[in-house]
């Protein structure tokens, strides 16, 4: 589950106050999620440098690596410089902080070199990796960092809006007296239409980010970099889409969990605004029938996780879940 930047900072602040900060964090999230701001706030917390100076030449004991070569990659020489800097003694009790922006742009040799630092971090150091596409990082690096996934403000608003649309669809569905095959198929089509809208929105946003990079670096990079960035944003689009799709599947789980709670007289609700409709379904189906629908949802989630054809998996599941 993705944090807001404020919630993530609160979590990290508590860990710092209790002297249990980890030595390495992977701060991930789409463009606009506040990865750099959170890194600056955390660096300021442990190092004492003003937040506004963390990424500037004024910062002391804060070392930043970002893509700088013509290919827009982080090269092994940059990692060697970081390792050397980390060996120096920090002054005035400051904690040494390394920030790697666009960590997914580490060259393989640079990633392997940095892995040694992750495995044996120098004393009084904090390592922060920032990435919009953490899936591109080696598993060996991922497994040695605590993940802090962030959602952008716009993403949170979009997520709330699309979940509200899905709940409205489910409420309309619950009011229908008879659930036949046509009803289930129609609901599946509406669900897929919602997914298409999500994919199109994400594609527009990532296309705009790519255009901005092309304009910024077109005269200082080579053609290979451009091809790589196109592939990067293609992968980012898919990653963000899968996250949002998973959120809608969880909304379906929340809906049927509320139906089950209502059938067993449990008061707590995931979707209190839909309590009337979920309560009506609880009187319509036996507990065993509700549980069977939950199991069908679990199968859908499993099938989608194994890249079974999306439309077919959704239609088959909805026919089982939303027909009498």
Give your account of this protein's structure.
The protein has 324 residues and is an alpha/beta fold. Helix content is 60%, strand content 8%. It contains eleven helices and five strands. Helix 3 links the parallel strand 2 (62-65) and strand 3. Helix 6 (153-175) crosses helix 8 (223-263). The longest helix is centred in the last third of the chain and has 41 residues, at 223-263. The two termini are 33 Å apart.
Strand order of the largest sheet: 2-3-4-1-5
Query: How many whole angstroms does the radius of gyration measure?
Result: 24 Å
Shape from CA axes? elongated
Indicate the mean pLDDT.
88
Give the DSSP E fraction (strand runs of 2 or more residues): 5-15%
Euclidean distance between termini CA atoms: 33 Å
Instruction: Please bin the fraction of helical residues.
Output: 55-70%
- Please, what is the oligomeric state? single chain
Low-confidence stretches: none
Helix count, DSSP H or I runs of 4 or more residues: 11
Biggest β-sheet, characterized? 5 strands, parallel
Order of helices and strands: HEHEHEHEHEHHHHHH
Q: Output the structural class.
A: alpha/beta
Total strand segments: 5
């Amino acid at each position: 589950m993705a944090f807001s930047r404020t919630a993530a900072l609160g979590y990290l602040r508590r860990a710092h106050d209790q002297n249990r900060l980890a030595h390495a964090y992977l701060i991930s999230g789409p463009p606009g999620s506040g990865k750099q701001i959170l890194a600056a706030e955390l660096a300021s917390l442990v190092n004492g440098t003003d937040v506004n100076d963390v990424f500037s030449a004024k910062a002391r004991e804060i070392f930043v690596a970002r893509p700088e070569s013509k290919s827009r990659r982080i090269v092994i020489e940059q990692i060697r410089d970081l390792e050397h800097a980390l060996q120096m003694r920090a002054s005035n009790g400051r904690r040494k902080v390394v920030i790697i922006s666009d960590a997914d742009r580490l060259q393989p040799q640079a990633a392997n070199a940095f892995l040694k630092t992750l495995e044996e971090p120098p004393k009084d150091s904090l390592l922060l990796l920032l990435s919009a596409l953490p899936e591109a990082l080696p598993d060996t690096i991922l497994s040695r960092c605590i993940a802090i996934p962030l959602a952008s403000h716009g993403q949170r608003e979009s997520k709330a809006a699309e979940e509200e649309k899905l709940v409205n669809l489910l409420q309309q569905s619950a009011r229908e007296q008879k659930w036949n095959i046509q009803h289930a198929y129609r609901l599946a089509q509406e669900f897929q239409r919602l997914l298409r809208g999500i994919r199109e929105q994400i594609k527009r946003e990532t296309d705009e980010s790519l255009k901005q990079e092309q304009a910024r670096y077109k005269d200082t990079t080579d053609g290979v970099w451009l091809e790589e960035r196109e592939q990067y944003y293609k992968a980012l689009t898919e990653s963000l889409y899968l996250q949002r799709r998973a959120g809608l599947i969880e909304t379906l789980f929340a809906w049927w969990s509320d139906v089950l709670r209502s059938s067993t007289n449990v008061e707590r609700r995931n979707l209190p605004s839909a309590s009337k409709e979920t309560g009506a379904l609880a009187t319509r189906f036996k507990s065993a029938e509700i549980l069977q629908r939950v199991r069908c949802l679990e199968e859908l989630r499993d099938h989608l996780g194994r890249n079974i054809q999306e439309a077919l998996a959704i239609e088959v599941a909805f026919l089982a879940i939303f027909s009498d």
